[in-house]
Amino acid sequence: xxxxxxxxxxxxxxxxxxxxxxxxxxxxxxxxxxxxxxxxxxxxxxxxxxxxxxxxxxxxxxxxxxxxxxxxxxxxxxxxxxxxxxxxxxxxxxxxxxxxxxxxxxxxxxxxxxxxxxxxxxxxxxxxxxxxxxxxxxxxxxxxxxxxxxxxxxxxxxxxxxxxxxxxxxxxxxxxxxxxxxxxxxxxxxxxxxxxxxxxxxxxxxxxxxxxxxxxxxxxxxxxxxxxxxxxxxxxxxxxxxxxxxxxxxxxxxxxxxxxxxxxxxxxxxxxxxxxxxxxxxxxxxxxx
Amino acid sequence: xxxxxxxxxxxxxxxxxxxxxxxxxxxxxxxxxxxxxxxxxxxxxxxxxxxxxxxxxxxxxxxxxxxxxxxxxxxxxxxxxxxxxxxxxxxxxxxxxxxxxxxxxxxxxxxxxxxxxxxxxxxxxxxxxxxxxxxxxxxxxxxxxxxxxxxxxxxxxxxxxxxxxxxxxxxxxxxxxxxxxxxxxxxxxxxxxxxxxxxxxxxxxxxxxxxxxxxxxxxxxxxxxxxxxxxxxxxxxxxxxxxxxxxxxxxxxxxxxxxxxxxxxxxxxxxxxxxxxxxxxxxxxxxxxxxxxxxxxxxxxxxxxxxxxxxxxxxxxxxxxxxxxxxxxxxxxxxxxxxxxxxxxxxxxxxxxxxxxxxxxxxxxxxxxxxxxxxxxxxxxxxxxxxxxxxxxxxxxxxxxxxxxxxxxxxxxxxxxxxxxxxxxxxxxxxxxxxxxxxxxxxxxxxxxxxxxxxxxxxxxxxxxxxxxxxxxxxxxxxxxxxxxxxxxxxxxxxxxxxxxxxxxxxxxxxxxxxxxxxxxxxxxxxxxxxxxxxxxxxxxxxxxxxxxxxxxxxxxxxxxxxxxxxxxxxxxxxxxxxxxxxxxxxxxxxxxxxxxxxxxxxxxxxxxxxxxxxxxxxxxxxxxxxxxx
Lengths: 289, 630
Known about the structure:
The complex is a heterodimer.
Chain A: H1 2-17, H2 19-36, H3 38-41, H4 72-108, H5 110-125, H6 128-138, H7 144-152, H8 157-171, H9 174-181, H10 186-223, H11 233-243, H12 253-281, H13 283-288
Chain B: H1 7-38, E1 51-56, H2 78-81, E2 83-84, E3 86-89, E4 94-97, E5 100-105, E6 111-116, H3 130-142, E7 151-158, E8 161-166, H4 173-178, E9 181-182, H5 186-193, H6 196-214, H7 223-246, E10 258-263, E11 267-272, E12 286-291, H8 295-303, E13 309-310, H9 316-325, E14 329-344, H10 354-363, H11 366-373, E15 378-379, H12 392-395, H13 398-402, H14 411-420, E16 424-425, E17 431-432, E18 440-446, H15 450-466, E19 469-475, H16 477-485, E20 491-498, H17 505-513, H18 518-523, E21 528-530, E22 536-538, H19 539-546, H20 552-569, E23 572-585, E24 590-591, H21 608-617, E25 622-623
Parallel strand pairs in B: 1-12, 18-19, 18-20
Antiparallel strand pairs in B: 2-9, 3-4, 5-6, 6-8, 7-8, 10-11, 11-12, 13-23, 14-20, 14-23, 15-23, 16-17, 21-22, 24-25
């Protein structure tokens, strides 16, 4: 337990020494708090009040109101729960699949590798959109975690292929050969020797997949695979730009910009934080900075 | 030991500050990126004199083929290139002459005789005759034109005389015949049209034999022979259809005031047909049609003053911005002859319970939904009769309406209805079914149709706020109809009553109660119910009777019964009567638009292009500047 705490404090220390990474950490913590504690503190009132539509920011509506006169800030806060769950679960499932399949292909070689590579080729070549349309006709998804799982189905193949290449290259290195000669188990080689070397790669892809999931979620909603949620930031942006004409109404500027800025800040925080994690695992980067 | 900071750190800080700066200006930058959309078309060259600008849709070349019968048709050009015999004005009941000069109906309504104008010609120079009318309707037989349900035959006793003979009378026969666009000159379509009378004859024999067999008698034809006849007829029909679809003239040939001269992926150009029968009163020399991709692009065109007339569904604030930016823009609202609302799946609980549907009718603030979804429409907040609100006065008397249940916005009453029907709330305030199970509903709406999606969303918020858990699911347009007719939904945001084309309740009630009616299929409600005095009302039978009588008193009597069933059993809940929002820009390129109250605008639900074309044909629309006049 002591070691764990020491590791956490040490990691935080590394991150806090890098301003960019620290900013990222604060951002991620802020958004996680917004998604978890926010809905408990700020109630959501989705009753339309047409007279109050497209109000600019004021004391009663700090980010203004949407096309039906509903508070934008409340929507952002409540939408953040789904956004975080979708983004993180997609990234988590996607990374898990990619790491397991990529390492398995890279380490096994031979027929297993060939078979996995063909499966990856199929996933990479089949366009996601028509398949999602078929899914939409067959299934009903109601929770964001399952939604994340569906999105993850198309997010792992590219990364798995890249991880396999990394593994193939690392396998020839002396430290892996040494581990093999010393009779270390496959799981030891996989998780203790190989994994730290591909962590930076995984981190960056985690962020990319999470970012992609936010934008992809709008498309999936419009396909009918999941229920439409007007508090989803991507959908808020879609409604403002394409459906309600907010883009043409000067007083609706905050409705257009609020979800946009929230998405940018969230993604930027992830990128900065990802940089910090990268540094945490790679002592060479720490020395440089 | 004092160490100097390594320069690389300073560099990292600079990058960080730069990134923060970038981050703060990024939203502004992205917003600025959208500005060009507002100025769409600013680069265009000055328009040629006498050009009318509008927007519409068509298949992008090389898919564009110019054949009115093949899939995709001729696109938006149809309204300018082709003409019907007459234009029907729903508001006044008047018929405006186009290719027809006059018409008479026999006293028994079994024959319609039309005299054609003698000065019309096709755009390839050949004269227009009665054979062309017959060719169009004959080809329409294999294209399943609705008129053939009632039409016995078309005869052409003279070059300029057409006689329609009806199998059965109907209140919409005349309008159906007179308003069909004449698209098929005999000299071009004869190779297909000449085979069709045989197909029509064979179909008749087949249907007669099938009827006799269904009635229990073997008749003259054995079942095996009948099968063989059907097989042969279908093969012949398929052959004609396949060859017809392969005909790609590139540019359509019509008799209308304009002919297509250029079609690209972004715009279509039509030029005045010099030999048009009313060429002297056509002052517009050219029409340029910009391709309609989505509403927001059309809003940009309107803001930039690029189009003279166009009909996008537009939110209130956007419409105000358009009018503010172009003070010459007028917005004309004309009924789309349809009502918009929620279709209920009457086969799936709790929607199958009429009390639940009635509770929803009281619970939903329909005027608020209208404002959010389609501000410029007419609210329907009282009854749902299947008769569009603007036509109620013609069909339903105030005394009759008083006998109907009125569904005013009253959430308290909605709660009472639910409690009386055995529904109850759980500890969290959510409604439970009488058997204690949770109520979880979905409202579906077609993707890309903003008004339907917003309406579904507003309704779902109200229902969820009341304790009925409701979500919205957007369905791709291609799947929407299938999901409805297969009844894989609870509620759907879609059209209900439709009076389009004939402005008669028959089309609306056919949708609701006919065997093949769309709403009948979607709701699973056949309308066979107990009437106000306990008698059995068979709505399907009544619709059949309505379609077979021209007696106004009898029609009214049937309509009242159907209106009662629709309102009391609520397979559909009307929210508003949809209006077309016709934006017209005066005095920029063209001038002379009719006043908003002009009955001509009421022709627009059948195709606003035909309305523009009639306005041009009548000589009302002229180039804006004197030097642009021909």
